[in-house]
Task: inverse folding
C-alpha cells in the first residue's frame, strides 16, 4: 500500500504504540520502525541501561537524533517513545511528516500497566499520583496529534481497525 506519508503513533508509555504499530504496518503492508528499538539496537544497550549509565539528557539526545532521521522516511508506520513527541522540534517535524495518531487510555489503565512492568526509568520511583500528574501534563501535548483513538476496552486488532477506518486507509 502507498499512503504518501507516515503513520506516527504517539502517546504515553505503555499505551501500546509498539504493538499496535507493528500490527498496523502488517495489515497495511508498510515498513515499521520503533524509535526505542532502534536506539537499543544502535547502542547495544537497553533503554534503562542508557538512563542509568549515561543519564536522561544523553538518552534524549539520542532519541532526538534517531527520531528526526526516521521521520524523513515515507510510507512507514513509526512508533515514537513516550517522551519524543514532548520535544518541540520532534513534534513539529512529526506533524509535517505524516498523520500523528495518539493512543489514548484512562489514566488508571496506563498506571496499572506501568506498575505491572516497571522497567521504565521515567516512572521507576514515582507514586501512582505522580504518574497521574505526568499523564495529565503530557496529555495536553499529546492532544496536538491529528487523530486521537480512545482505546479503552478495545482489543489490539480493534484498535488497528479503528485507525484504518478513521484515517480512511
Ligand atoms: C519514555 C518512554 C519510553 C522510553 C523511555 C522514556 C518517556 O518509551 O522512550 O523510557 O519519557 O515517556 P515507551 O513509550 O515506548 O515506553
Result:
Amino acid at each position: 500500500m502507498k499512503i504518501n506519508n507516515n503513520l506516527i503513533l504517539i502517546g504515553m508509555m505503555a499505551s501500546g504504540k509498539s504493538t499496535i504499530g507493528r500490527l498496523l504496518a502488517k495489515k497495511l503492508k508498510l515498513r515499521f520502525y520503533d524509535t526505542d528499538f532502534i536506539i537499543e539496537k544502535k547502542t547495544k544497550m537497553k533503554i534503562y541501561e542508557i538512563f542509568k549509565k549515561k543519564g536522561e539528557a544523553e538518552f534524549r539526545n539520542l532519541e532526538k537524533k534517531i527520531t528526526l532521521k526516521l521521520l524523513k522516511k515515507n510510507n512507514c508506520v513509526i512508533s515514537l517513545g513516550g517522551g519524543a513527541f514532548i520535544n518541540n522540534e520532534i513534534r513539529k517535524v512529526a506533524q509535517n511528516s505524516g498523520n500523528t495518531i495518539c493512543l489514548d487510555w484512562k489514566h488508571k489503565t496506563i498506571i496499572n500497566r506501568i506498575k505491572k512492568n516497571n522497567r521504565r526509568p521515567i516512572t521507576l520511583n514515582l507514586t501512582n499520583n505522580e504518574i497521574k500528574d505526568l499523564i495529565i501534563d503530557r496529555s495536553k501535548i499529546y492532544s496536538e496529534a491529528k487523530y486521537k483513538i480512545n482505546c479503552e476496552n478495545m482489543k489490539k486488532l480493534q484498535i488497528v481497525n479503528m485507525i484504518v477506518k478513521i484515517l480512511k486507509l
